[in-house]
Design brief:
This protein is mostly helical. The longest helix is centred in the middle third of the chain and has 14 residues. It has a domain of about 30 residues. It is elongated and about 40 Å long.
Length: about 55
């Protein structure tokens, strides 16, 4: 399980000793990631299964 410290601001402007790493994804990348996650759980999804191919 991944622990997320909500007390740390998620802004690149705020300087923290251990700054969080933020990865921004667009909706097409979100659909591809969902396909990958569900495939590991035995569910076969295609990009066409998402509205306009986006998640």
């Amino acid at each position: 399980m991944k622990m997320i410290d909500l007390s740390v601001p998620l802004s690149p402007k705020v300087k923290e000793p251990t700054p969080p790493k933020i990865q921004y994804n667009n909706h097409e990348q979100g659909a591809e990631e969902a396909i990958h996650v569900f495939k590991q759980k035995g569910l076969e999804l295609k990009k066409e299964d998402f509205h306009r191919g986006k998640a």
